Amino acid sequence: MKTLVIVMHSLTGGTRQMAEAAASGAAREPLVSTRLLSASEAGPDDLLSADGYLFATPETLAGIAGLMKDFFDRAYYPTLGRIQGRPYASLICAGSDGHNAARRIARIAAGWRLREIAEPLIVCTRAQTKEAILAPKTIAAADLALCADLGEALAAGLAAGIF
Questions:
Q1: What confidence score (pLDDT) does residue 118 get?
Q2: What does the angle CA 32 – CA 19 – CA 132 come to, to the nearest 5 degrees?
Q3: What is the mean pLDDT of residues 23-38?
Q4: Which of 6, 76, 122, 129 would bridge with 54, disulfide CB 3.0–4.6 Å?
Q5: Based on the number of CB atoms within 10 Å of its own CB, is 26 exposed (0-12), middle (13-18) or buried (19 or more)?
């Protein structure tokens, strides 16, 4: 049995919906156990015990959310040199762009020597005012289906030994 760990943070619910959809997609693969963890709960042992990763974060001030950064800070050095070659993908819930958040995750993953198995999946909510940014989010069904497909693809690749 392979293990996929999904580490996420969500303030307004958008990223949580995306991560849950990815977990639902991954659950279609019976040979993979999927663990969905909040960034504040996850740590080095969760990465060490997994075969692949999905990192999900909102875009915050043109970067990754602070609690995701905290997770990466806590997990980076204890796992450095111990998880290289493992596959990962990322989900970004963005207000306007999301590419800088995706680049931040890619740089951290490059330091770990992880293998990116898909382009970052960025869902743009177009939230531009303070009220819209802080409001609870509802992610469109089509976008959630893409998240589920990514989770399923990552789990299927793990199960088949492709990654």
A1: 98
A2: 175
A3: 98
A4: 6
A5: buried
According to the model, what pLDDT value does residue 109 have?
98
* Residue predicted with more confidence, 62 or 83: 83
Distance, in Å, from the CA atom of 161 to the CA atom of 145, rounded to the nearest integer, reads: 24
Q: Given pLDDT bands bounded at 50, 70 and 90, which one contains residue 145? A: very high
H or E element, residue 78 = helix 66-79
Q: CATH classification of 2-160 is 3.40.50.360, yes or no?
A: yes
DSSP helix/strand/coil, 8: strand
Question: What one-letter code names the amino acid at 88?
Answer: Y
- Its sign, for the CA torsion 65, 70, 73, 79, is negative
Domain definitions of the chain by residue range: 2-160
What's the mean pLDDT in 85-94? Answer: 98
**pLDDT given at position 100:** 97
Bridging pattern class, strands 87-94 and 115-116: parallel
